Amino acid sequence: MLTRRTFVGGVATTALGSLGLPSLELFAQGTPPARPRDQRPPDDYDTLAKLANNENPYGPSEAVLQAMTKAFKYANRYGYPDGNLTEQIAKHHGVKTEQVMIAAGSGEILDVCCTALLQDDNKKIVGADPSYEILYSQASSLKAGDTIRIPLLADFRQDIPAMIRATKKNHRQIGFVYLCNPNNPTGRIVTRDEVRQLLDGIPEDVPVLIDEAYHHFVEDPAYETSMKYVTEGRAVIVARTFSKIAGLAGMRLGYAIAPREQLQVLRPWATGSVNACVRWGGVAALADKEGEARVRTATLEQRKKAVSELKTLGYDCIPSETNFFMVHIKRPVQPVIEEFRKKNVLVGRPFPPLNESLRVSVGTPDEMARFMVAFKEVFATKAAARG
């Protein structure tokens, strides 16, 4: 019988594995490329509370599942109708089709930007620290120039004036500026005014890659998407993903919106390996506003509830506008991660230099309840040990 689990798992494995693509960990928001997959049997894996990788715990909506199921009939074809995915994305954002590039997750967009923009002349990235570490790791693997990492401010926001200064100082060495907005792992936004301050403050020929993987969860009115800068003709590349709000992390679908001239530089490095099923799923996800709203509402409700309960226990969280949060646990994270794992709760990895802050993805109500039980047990045990 076709189930949500067998459909998503089976098609993702077949479609990606047969194409010889790199491990999914390379592209997953929140999962380092060097970390091996969980090797537990499938049934054991299903019993875990999976709060480590910022996934949508509810999975694709019924509309998206139906669209992907119907697309199975194209599984044996190279050329097939794809629901006009590029056209639908362009229409969704009010841009031209030539300003859209589809990829196997927004992770591939980031990977392509590194390959296309850094390899010549030992170029560097300017970006916040910590931010999406896999991007920086990819740059290092290309033997590109060292990333210029700008420490976060005391309130965990990205330091835009410092990014501007670093970019201007190293102008000819900069391949692009990276802005994860909201930022992973902190969940903090860069306001609309700060984004414009950055774009106006750096040389206009320096591309800015703005990663909006968590855009759909933001409530703060000071935030806005940066899509408008593409239509203004700025050197801006906006990366989006269907992995989060649409629940398609295992199926791999994302895209970039950028000026035509910028995409001409990137396209030769893209794999073009997006499968038939997820193309139709993406079209359905764009149209499924009710499904998107359900996930957003449930996620924000569970995040706020967990943050409130943790505060009651005496643990503060960084203000988050995403489907995850960071809680300051007042001790090194790594041993605590292992304690949670023993209780079948997966939580985020360390994010230096925030070595005493634990990133927790927002799961289902059941998963979050299990997290809170485990949290109280882990920290009660540690308190008893100190006593």
What is this entry, summarized?
With 387 residues, this protein is an alpha/beta fold. The chain is 42% helix and 13% strand.
Outline the structure in words.
The chain is of the alpha/beta class. It has two domains: 20-60 and 289-386, Alpha-Beta Complex (Aspartate Aminotransferase, domain 1), CATH 3.90.1150; 65-287, Type I PLP-dependent aspartate aminotransferase-like (Major domain) (Aspartate Aminotransferase, domain 2). It contains 15 helices and eleven strands. It has helices at residues 4-17, 24-27, 42-47, 62-70, 85-93, 106-118, 133-141, 160-169, 192-201, 228-231, 260-266, 276-287, 289-312, 333-342, 365-386; strands at residues 49-51, 100-103, 124-129, 148-151, 174-180, 208-211, 236-241, 254-257, 324-328, 345-347, 357-361. Strands 2-8-7-6-5-3-4 form a seven-stranded mixed β-sheet, with helices on both faces. It has a two-stranded parallel ribbon with strand order 1-10. Strands 9-11 form a two-stranded antiparallel ribbon. α10 (228-231) links the parallel β6 and β7 (236-241). The chain is globular. The termini are far apart.
